[in-house]
Give the backbone structure.
Amino acid sequence: MVPKLALGALMLLAGLFTSAGARAAELLMFDDPGCMWCRRWNAEIGPSYPRTRAGQRAPLRRVPIRDQARAGVALARPVHITPTFVLVADGQEVGRIDGYAGRDFFYPMLEELLRRIPPPQPQLGPPLQRSAVCASETCRP
């Protein structure tokens, strides 16, 4: 009984870590303190971005360009200019926007990148867990 209980506890923990480890989409902004186009983006879009539909779906995370190796995501290629906006889903680069040409261009380009990832599915409640006592496929939770 104890080994089955221990196995069940491990399976539950593994399920929790797996679902917690899946990362949602995020928008990385690789910037530099001396970048005038970064300052322009900060002035024109930065304050309102978190309240937009795109900002809700892909929250912004700023990364200094010199720290791109420590960003914790798999980039398709190194970032060479600032600002560069990289859309990431589950730790993988989906696409990027190199530079900033103004609000009229930024949002349509970002929407095009967002279309490459599936929309988030609504969570109806916690997933059902199989009992540790009943490990066969014929058991029902």
Summary: Residues 22-114 form a domain with the Glutaredoxin fold (CATH 3.40.30.10). The helical segments are 2-21, 36-44, 53-57, 103-114.
